[in-house]
Specification:
Strands 1, 2, 3, 4, 5, 6, 7, 8, 9, 10, 11, 12, 13 and 14 form a 14-stranded antiparallel β-sheet that branches. The relative contact order is 0.19. A hairpin with a 4-residue loop joins strand 7 (138-140) and strand 8. The protein is α+β, with helices and mostly antiparallel strands and 243 residues long. The chain is globular, with a radius of gyration of 17 Å. The protein has helices spanning 2-13, 20-33, 55-62, 116-119, 124-133, 161-168, 229-242, and strands at residues 37-40, 45-48, 68-72, 75-84, 93-101, 107-114, 138-140, 145-149, 173-175, 178-184, 190-198, 201-209, 212-217, 222-227. The chain has one domain (2-242). The chain starts with a helix and ends with a helix.
């Protein structure tokens, strides 16, 4: 669930920037509204019918180089992995971004492959509704934050925490209602996840990953995100003005 919200927020977060990147992300956000970006459950893919974002845009938005770059049948792939710090490899989390070349030879984002472990506990309808909620994201350009209202999304299909825990594995630490998870990329970039669980039901999700901090309140139906630190803000602004 947290990865799905993170993906939706990542797509629209750079609306707080200026320059050509802003234009491309605005166009991508519009595609969330008319469902030109959609979920393909059989392949665990978020597909993008009208590729707009460059491969370099994704590196800038993420804030680190991919762990692996590969070419398969004319499609370029960026692979990112976050290794769980207290568990076996089957509890690691992974993303793959797929890019296809346009008529000028530039590679643009055409699909995002979501970790099948996460998809396995979420219904396709829930995924589609969460993605659609990104269409109405509200941006505060001054504070460089965004918020998404998903209060109209039916969250009843989110499984109880024991099922979620079977996917994530045991928490690194547990105090009261809070469960703390830690991951680390091959580039030594941390990912921190804090879950609040009451009576086996997930209530809030807090994530620090890549350049961002995500806060997801399932009870209120609100998700917010902001860029962490001055350096990340400056790096993104510099890139957005230059490309």
């Amino acid at each position: 669930m947290r990865k799905l919200f993170s993906c939706t927020l990542l797509i629209v977060l750079s609306l707080s920037l200026n320059g050509c990147l802003l234009t491309r992300v605005n166009q991508t956000k519009d595609d969330l509204c008319d469902k030109s970006i959609y979920f393909e459950p059989a392949q665990s893919l978020i597909k993008i019918s009208r590729p707009i974002l460059y491969d370099s845009d994704i590196i800038a938005l993420v804030g680190e180089e991919p762990q692996r770059i590969s070419m398969e049948a004319g499609t370029k792939y960026f692979a990112y992995e976050a290794k769980k710090q207290n568990g076996s490899g089957d509890k690691d989390l992974a993303w793959r971004f797929a890019f296809i070349a346009d008529t000028e030879g530039d590679f643009k984002l055409s699909a995002i492959e979501v970790d099948k472990k996460i998809i396995g506990v979420l219904s396709p309808q829930l995924i589609e509704e969460v993605m659609a909620s990104g269409c109405d994201a509200k941006i505060n350009k001054l504070l460089m934050t965004l918020s998404v209202d998903f209060s109209g999304v039916d969250l009843s299909s989110i499984p109880a925490f024991p099922e979620i825990e079977s996917v994530l594995g045991a928490a690194m630490s547990h105090q009261g209602d809070n469960y703390h998870y830690e991951y680390l990329s091959d580039n030594n970039q941390p990912a921190l996840i804090e879950l609040k669980v009451v009576d086996d039901r997930l209530q809030t999700i807090d994530v620090e990953y890549w350049r961002y901090r995500f806060n997801i309140d399932l009870l209120a139906g609100q998700a917010t995100s902001k860029i962490i630190g001055t350096k990340n803000r400056v790096d993104l602004m510099r890139y957005s003005l230059g490309k």
